[in-house]
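Entry for the shared binder. Reason: the reviewer on the internal report wants the predicted structure included alongside the sequence.
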Amino acid sequence: MIPREVFKKIKKIQITTSRMVTDVFAGQYQSVFKGKGMEFYEVREYFPGDEIRAIDWNVTARMGRPFVKKFVEERELSVVLLLDASASCDFGSVKQLKKQLATELCSLLAFSAIKNNDKVGLLIFTDKIEKFIPPRKGVRHVLRVIREAIYHKAQSRGTDISLALEYLNRVMKRKSIVFLISDFLDKDFKKTISISNKRHDVVAVTITDPRESELPDVGIIEITDAEKGESLLIDSSDPHLRRMYKKEATSEARQREHLLRSAGVDNIYIRTDTAYTKELIKFFRMRERRQS
């Protein structure tokens, strides 16, 4: 039984994101994420005018008369949402937690997909595979995906992006659109994400909070590593400390950008203190220009 407050959250997210899909993203999604090309449909007898290249020589030899392969355009796609549920995503200093923002993005992408008659799946991960929902169609299925994204209680605290991608590669044999939604507080996943991006179309959605890149000047504060459970008292009024904190955060962000770029993975950069619509539209337009 879903608690009343969770049901209200699901309904609110459904209303908000459905409106955004209708007004803004549906057409852009369809123009960017197209079908896989042509797929085999059937074999039929050869008719004068058919291309010689289309002849199925095996069937022709077996039947004693010429047959050709018929192909149709394959429009249907599978979209898989890889959702990071590690402890570091349970943080937010402004409007909402990174986890809440990630859930809203899942909803928006899922409704964009089903409006285009695509399938949607969900893989929730930490440093373990927490839950996998295979891609399916329909509003009821999407509501289940949203419910799991909101209601899921993580069994572990860490992050293992490579593990999630390796699992994805095992369970999804056909090429899919993969949105990897995470704060990317992990290392050594370049090889795995490069392999995954060759099999699928992987898009990184990086969610950050302003306090992760810059400290406020508020005196003595406690900083906690959510995934390791380690805490440290620091004096945030020290300007040298604030500069070093910002320098380290900037360096990590650049390393992450370089890793994703070298793996050929597009990155949508989302912050908890700003509207994400601008960044999503920027991503769709960039993809459209690349394909034109």
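Summary line for the report: The chain has a mean pLDDT of 87.
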